[in-house]
Amino acid sequence: MSLAEVETIARRAHAGQTDKNGHPYTEHLAAVAGGTAARGGAEEQIAAGWLHDAIEDDALTREWLAEAALPDTTKAIVDALTKRPGEPPEQYAARILATPGALLVKQADLAHNSDPGRLAALDPATAARLTAKYARMRALLGLPEA
């Protein structure tokens, strides 16, 4: 599957979804895929950037991912980035660190989620909660502060 096909699937799967600021959720996906590319990510990682929230958000199923014409690397990264219900952040971070290629995609995800412009549009309590959440995840992953 080409990157253009992956993008199309991701955009269709998340159509109608919005982020916490009310923007189309696909803007976040594009930012993560673009951020992955800008950080030197391989095509498999960029594809995972497009799909990183698809399973977690119930936009696509685990069965779809298993059957998709995607490299195993992309599938493994998407699986690693999919949070499990009730999963402790430490366990989530450990899975990301153990999956080749996943850390770079998560770094792009955290960078976009932590963007000061995006956080400034939220109410102060939500912005503070998310800032702390993202800082904790960066620390667990050994990433520098945003």
What descriptors fit this protein?
9 helices, about 150 residues, mainly alpha
What does this structure look like?
The chain is mainly α and 146 residues long. Helix content is 65%, strand content 0%. The chain is built from nine helices and no strands. The chain is globular and about 40 Å long. 32% of the residues are buried. The mean pLDDT is 96.
What are the SSEs and their pairings?
Elements: H1 3-13, H2 25-38, H3 43-51, H4 62-67, H5 72-81, H6 89-98, H7 102-113, H8 116-120, H9 124-141
Helix pairs in contact: 1-3, 2-3, 2-7, 3-5, 3-7, 7-9
Question: How would you briefly describe this protein structure?
Answer:
Helices cover 65% and strands 0% of the residues.
